[in-house]
Hints:
303 residues, alpha/beta, single chain, 12-stranded mixed β-sheet
Amino acid sequence: MRYVFIANPKAGAGKGFNKYKDRLIAACEKMGVPYKFMLTRSGTDLTDFARSEGEKGDEVRIIVLGGDGGICGAANGVIGMKNVEFGIIPCGSGNDYVKSFGGAKGFEDVERYLTAPSRYVDAIDTGHFASVNICSMGIDAIICDRTNRMTRAKKLLGSGTYTLAVLISMLGKVYNTLKVTIDDSEVYEGEFMFSLAACGQYYGGGYRGAPMADPSDGLLDFVMIKRVSKLKMARLLGEYKSGSYPDSKKFEGLLTVKRGRKMKIESAKPAIVNIDGECLTLSEVTFEVIPKALRLIVNDTAQ
């Protein structure tokens, strides 16, 4: 088994790579395994580097040091490759994906993590690129897009940026007219705050949007919330963020939660779509599960 570490030196304000590099080298030397580091210069490098290493065909552990965007980028290079075990050392500002596996602690204990077992996890085919966590169309995607633009413009980081983007976005339009079809049979039409499909549970710097999602069950969790006033939206936000909303009386008549394999969303007007933090503007998108897409290294003993 060889180890390849793909690092985004800018993730987490550039602190992550420097924090872990020496520890990873020492751990690999102690295990006596071949290893190398590959440093990215652009987003496409993550996908290209991971794919090129996986296509060599031997058993390899490809571990990305980065945030949620880096995880998605590298994963897109190796989805479906049975010879690859995919690892994560979270170095981003949000680190939402790893929260579905007990949080960052088990991934940050690198000495133990390098020898931890792997297990299959699902992904989402979007027709554009794959997601490993959560995809959505609606106000949450608008907030995500605004967060990205604020981060690029002002070099802001962390969940505080997302919270500020929430407040600003609430001043504008907070709903879309959608037609949502689940598994080619169940149809929901109307004005929705958003509609999402999830493998993982968390996004947006700690919002637990899909609290019952299981990344390994071969299905996606779907969440739809109908249009409400901006004042009521503000009142609902806390319970949505905590993930307690499915059992809340405040969401009665507003919430639809389903589980299935495919969600098709059609918008009356082009709308922003969030795919693991990357945003596109589309009138139609389909999210479909890719079962057992990756062999993810998970240090279960740290959960």
